[in-house]
User: Which sequence fits this backbone?
């Protein structure tokens, strides 16, 4: 009998986050699940990896049974350590999430959730990142079901090398979700603002705040598809080359820029 | 009289790193320079930003004069805080570096040096990241001169919106540098390995090691151009959409994948 596939689950909200637990419950219907996730909240760590200090991993129990491994590190650390050291067999799929907040537009590069999936892909395993729009009382069940449907599809059909699926789900009831859109990453970004305050010792500190400025319009863009009631699926990669400008650069810079050392 | 342009300098090796100081010296020939850099070494932090804790900034003096601001945060934090709060005027250019080690291939996504430049671009300022191949005794002068030549060129000619220059310099004497190549980001990546050891209390820890596995051949790819004795300049962006697969996905998935909730 063929073994059931193995899915590695990680996230950036930490091993005890409700989004991860909903995801694990849904994925157990279609596969064996191994959990390796940060021991504490790691939001906005981007694709950080820990190189200057050692990493620790702990067995993490829930309701008296072994649930997975907690790692004192970033999401990318978790996936690297899981695949290279902690797991006895190579997983067939990595699923990261479910993040409590969207990872659309520029957020993709700040996202620890996406970086866990990216790390899976770097290590040669098809990977999916799943995020749910932020609300005061998030309900992760619908996103978890979507994650399981996509996981089953990817386990059967595969993904091209070096391709990650970045999935975002609107915070609306399942009955109101209109369908799925295959989207591009948007250009929307944060209007940053720093609160500047005084601490109890009267010294300045700064705290990042701000709101998202929507710069996109087309419905084939992540954020806009979500607003229209669709699940957004963006295929992403980690080749950051700006191909279009590279062609232009080769034509235009060559005559003009001189490297006189 | 027109004011001299203002360049914001940051890095990930910290405000007292020799690579940053060589860069500042070279850039002072062509512009005014403001330094806002991490107070401590921040390698491999990727595009992390600090959202869950406040940030501190300190005036940093060298040889009795004010040199810049040190920030207890990541490279991306430094650039955000500089542009939004610390600097009285918007810089004309952001230059990040000079990193002690290459930021080619997959390293681009782990790199704090690149992320400082990316953050500059997100905030609407042309930005350049400069890295020097690692050696036991790095000499940053040639890279600093290259950074200044490219900075002058970009100050005059600009860069397209959302485009960062990722510059890498081989560790060879200036006289042996063959010229400049406009390159693509390579596919080479790390063969990760974790040292598993026992600490003084006999508990396990893991420490990331490994070496780069070169997967590329073409001389128009970052790592390969460097090996051939060229300075590598890769235009990068932060739209991670895998355009090619997106087109395929829209054709192939639509009939096959069903979102049955």
Assistant:
């Amino acid at each position: 009998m063929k073994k059931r596939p193995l899915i590695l689950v990680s996230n950036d909200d930490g091993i005890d986050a409700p989004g991860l637990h909903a995801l694990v419950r849904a994925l157990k219907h279609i596969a064996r699940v191994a959990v390796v996730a940060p021991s504490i909240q790691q939001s906005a760590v981007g694709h950080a990896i820990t190189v200057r200090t050692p990493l620790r991993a702990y067995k993490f129990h829930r309701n008296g049974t072994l649930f997975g491994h907690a790692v004192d590190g970033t999401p990318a650390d978790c996936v690297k350590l899981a695949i290279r050291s902690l797991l006895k067999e190579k997983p067939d799929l990595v699923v990261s999430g479910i993040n409590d907040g969207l990872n659309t537009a520029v957020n993709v590069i700040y996202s620890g959730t996406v970086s866990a999936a990216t790390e899976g892909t770097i290590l040669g395993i098809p990977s999916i990142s799943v995020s749910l729009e932020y609300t005061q009382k998030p309900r992760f069940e619908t996103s978890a079901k979507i994650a399981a449907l996509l996981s089953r599809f990817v386990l059967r059909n595969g993904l091209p090398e070096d391709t990650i699926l970045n999935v975002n789900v609107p915070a609306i009831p399942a009955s109101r979700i209109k369908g799925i859109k295959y989207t591009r990453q948007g250009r929307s970004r944060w209007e940053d603002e720093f609160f500047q305050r005084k601490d109890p010792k009267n010294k300045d500190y700064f705290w990042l705040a701000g709101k998202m400025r929507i710069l996109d319009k087309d419905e084939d863009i992540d954020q806009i598809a979500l607003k229209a009631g669709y699940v957004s699926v963006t295929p992403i990669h980690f080749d950051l080359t700006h191909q279009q400008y590279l062609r232009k650069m080769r034509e235009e810079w060559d005559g003009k820029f001189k490297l006189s050392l």
About this structure: The first helix of chain A runs from residue 18 to 27.
